[in-house]
Amino acid sequence: MGDPEMADNSTAPALRVSGLTKHYPGVTALAGVDLEVKPGQVLSLSGANGAGKSTLVKILSGAEQPDTGRIWIDGKEVKLESPHAARQAGIYTIYQEMSLVPAMSVVENIFLDDFARGGLFRRSKMERQARELMDRLGLSVNVNDPVGSLPLGKQQFVEIAKALKSQPRVLLLDEPTTTLPPRDVSSLLKLMRELAASGVGLIFISHRLDEVTEVCDAVDVLRDGRRVAHFDLVPDHHEIVKAMMGDRYENSLAAAAAENAEGYLGGIAGDEVVLEVRELTDGNRVAPATFDLRRGEVLGITGLLGAGQTELAECLFGIREATDGTISVDGRPVRIRTPREAISAGLGLIPEDRKSQGLVLGMSANKNITLASLTSFARKGVLDHRKEVQHGREQVRELNIKCSSVHQTVGTMSGGNQQKVLLARWLTKNSKVLILAEPTRGVDVAAKEEIYRLIRDYLRDGGAAIIVTSEVAEAALCDRVLVLTGGRVVAEATHEEIRSQQQDLLTHLR
Q: Alpha helices, DSSP H only, in 7-151?
């Protein structure tokens, strides 16, 4: 890269880092990483979980200090000794989990950092500046409304307004679209391009490669703490996936999905019907739905956010009350009014929001794994902790769950490993049917492959699965697919038909 100190500041990159390293006990998180972002450029930072992305973001945001390496902003070397120092230098970070205070107003959230430093401001001046920022972002909101009353997409824009108030040179966006509906994602990507056009340099982290190809100008790929690839022009999905996965890429389902090629998650269904659903409805969001699920089969249910697929899964699992219809498991009618009854009937659910609906984040991985099966680890009503821990260790080993021990708090684990803990819970319970809502959302392609492998193993062991997904490429890996719009099934396709009919499926989703 040459010596950045010799660069003319007028033509210097907005951000340049050289030789960043970071070691933790037993782990090299970063090994001599170089990176450069030009003014007005959107750079994708891609990589699997554990590749070093989070560590790099922490260093650039001032939350962590590198062991070695140098950082320049606009050609001037800086020391980012704290988050405040990073913002003072011109770097602002937008995280997936927003730092807003829901009960405070929009204007109060925008100026929260200034309040924390003891600044004194006239309310009228703050409101005027907040409205100017909202106008710049094209957002029509009352700046005196509580930020918690706004939809998630607008809250994300308020987070960005906090950054723009300080006129950042570099904006880091770490998985900002994960929880947003498609319309808000489109608005955010459009805003990113507008910010780039104004001269801001952006670093964008997203596991959704269609977003990367839509908004980014260049791609850097990290693997095992090193930058293993740089693309001056954004390549096809499979080139990015290949760089991320390395030798694990060939013959993977993640590769098949990325390349829109033939891939099969199921393909081993027998004739025995495990789950029979007839005219199931909640009388509101879910129109009467009828389908069968066979042993060894994986059924995809897809549609845009709000199309009713989540509500259908909730009806099956007793979270949402069904007003009519019947459910049978192994040929026996069952009445499911609560999740407890669904579990007793042999159903397991990995919910769309694993953190708030599936996991107990403050509990250990082991306790989360055994949560639905505690009676299996009890003797005369007393929990056998040794037996419970031994089982947890077996699950961690068999499912390749990366954790320091079975006692690690699950809230500190990566998204992919959290999903595997939930899978382990239902494997422990010997569930006959698994309902997986957006099972690979927010996880990288390597973790996706691990999750797909575990689902295939479960099917081969006699299970049956329903995958609720908004990704058509993922639905296309299933044996059959139901497409929902407005709570109603509007199309159905077998695996053999999906590849030739993907455009038709996409049409139904619009």
A: 53-60, 83-89, 106-110, 112-116, 123-136
